[in-house]
Amino acid sequence: MRGLARLKKILLLFILLVTVKYMHAQQPGITDTTAKKQINILHADKISYKKVDSLNEYQILVGHVAVQQEKTLFYCDSASINTKSNILEAFGKVHINDNDSLHIYSDYLKYLGKEKKATLTGKVSLTDGKGTLTTSKLDYDLNTHIGNYYDGGKVVNGKTVLTSKEGFYYEDTRDVYFKKDVVLTDPEYTIKTDTLLYNTYTGISTFVVPTVITSDSGRKVVKTKDGYYDTKNKKTYFGQRTEIQDGATFIVADEMASDDSTGFGEARGKVIYRDTAQKVTIFANHLNSNRKNSSFLATEKPVMILEQEEGDSLFIAADTMYSARLSDLKKYRNVPVIIESKAQQASDTAISTIKDTASSDEDNTDVITKSIAQKKDTVSALPAIVQRKRPGRKELAVKITDTINTVNDTAIIAANTFTKKDTTVTVKSVDSTIAPPMDSAALVKMAFLKKDMALQNKLSPKDTAANKNDSTNRFFEAYYHVRIFSDSLQAAGDSLFYSGEDSAFRLFKQPIVWARESQVTGDTIYLFTQNKKPSRLYVFENAFTVNKVGTGYYNQIRGRTINGYFKNGNMDYMRAKGNSESIYYAQDEDNKFIGVNKATADIIDMYFEERKPQKVVFRSNLVGTTYPMRQVNHDELRLRGFKWLDDLRPKTKYELFAN
């Protein structure tokens, strides 16, 4: 029995030993990490040993010291290694070579071999082959390959220098995360922020907090909260309502991108562009620009504001707006300039004379030249013109003649034709050679502009007219659903062209202009401005003006062309030429209607006072009839082509933004 019990014990012990051995065989091999993390000595001129206690035993290395841990090499003048704790302290000309991809230099190093963490002090320098980081103290983790400093540091990457109070370096991605009082200095710009991410390999700076970027000696300032700046490729992206002040120009948008190498820029989302020098503001949802040729293209509900000194700003809305240098446009398109000549100045004098004498019994009108009546509406009908010299334009070799004469004019003032309520008046002009003030059609030789939005891809980036003033060397185009609003004037049309050289707005395809209670229509309308206020209005072909004087009562003038003149921004005088017709409601001193006159003449003039029509003067070949108010069906008293288009008229500036 005793033998059997003993045998059982031996068998049980054998099974236990086999099981333990089997279990041990099933476990994966255990790596001796302690051996791998051990700091090994490669070289030293002198080596000594010192034991302090059971926990501290040192190897003392002096002279050209080189030690290694895994793939990391350490160099210094002298060092001590605690073999118990695996801690290395290095002194003098410390150099860490981490797998030949990163090099760190310092005066002193304390390295925890087990944790693979280093603390370096005294003229610390870290380089990854692209950028160099310098600081007075650096903590570096060789496990994560992340270094950080908290006492101020600087990174130099080519010509770019970055400084901050705190910084974190990531070797794997070559990113440096700067915090607190961050300043990036580059030959072309300076960045100031509280937090910045910079990549030493790509040279891209990324912004995540409020950031200010200045360039051009402080002329250009960017304020952003989000985005990046690619220093190598000169590309930028900004988000979160970035603001850019560039000299006299200011722009803000939800997001913006630019390429300095090409000059192209793009802004999206509630874009506001303002030029304080030109007093121009643009609102749009999408704006493309080219800095090299000073052009821009605004789309997605753009609105332009032309500010005036007295506050009556001009608002313009359209589907698309484009602007660039006029000198560049002339390389690809014929842009005739409407010249204000001496004859036109003489025309102004004649108009003033007519207005002063029109109320007399014998209406005397100055004649500009006898030949005008013989050669109507042609450029050759201006023998007394010497055009003003302009850069690049030859002076017309025209001989000046003094043929001004004074003759009688039997122009009839509508208010004076009413003798009795039931009287019908037919009047013929005594002298059919009376010359009107100079017609704008004779001053303009214009080829209609083609709608070429592809022009922006053709314009040369070179400025061939650098000596020209920028305000005159610009043009502006608006396409489709053009609408204009100011307190004194409104307009609408299919398309618009504006030239800074002659300060003229050209409206095409069913254009309409409203001024107070007056409406002007025609095939094409030119609106000239002076100091950004309307000064002249020229209507070409099928010209028609309507003035509402009461409910259902409309003064009407129809002609081939109409010229209008403004005074202090308000309509002052209007002339219709070419088979002119009119319907005019006469009023007495108490503004009561006393009759309506329907007439035809070669020329019809309308004069305004306090923004209202006061009188009508007919010149040459007048045939007119005066009707009492009760004898006329006023709803049917309309000239051919009459349209009252008040529904198309913008009533407030806010309508332009709403659309």
TrEMBL record:
<feature type="signal peptide">
    <location>
        <begin position="1"/>
        <end position="25"/>
    </location>
</feature>
<dbReference type="GO" id="GO:0017089">
    <property type="term" value="F:glycolipid transfer activity"/>
</dbReference>
<dbReference type="InterPro" id="IPR052037">
    <property type="entry name" value="LPS_export_LptA"/>
</dbReference>
<protein>
    <submittedName>
        <fullName>OstA family protein</fullName>
    </submittedName>
</protein>
<dbReference type="GO" id="GO:0009279">
    <property type="term" value="C:cell outer membrane"/>
</dbReference>
<dbReference type="GO" id="GO:0030288">
    <property type="term" value="C:outer membrane-bounded periplasmic space"/>
</dbReference>
<feature type="domain" description="Organic solvent tolerance-like N-terminal">
    <location>
        <begin position="36"/>
        <end position="194"/>
    </location>
</feature>
<dbReference type="Pfam" id="PF13100">
    <property type="entry name" value="OstA_2"/>
</dbReference>
<dbReference type="InterPro" id="IPR005653">
    <property type="entry name" value="OstA-like_N"/>
</dbReference>
<dbReference type="GO" id="GO:0015920">
    <property type="term" value="P:lipopolysaccharide transport"/>
</dbReference>
<keyword id="KW-0732">Signal</keyword>
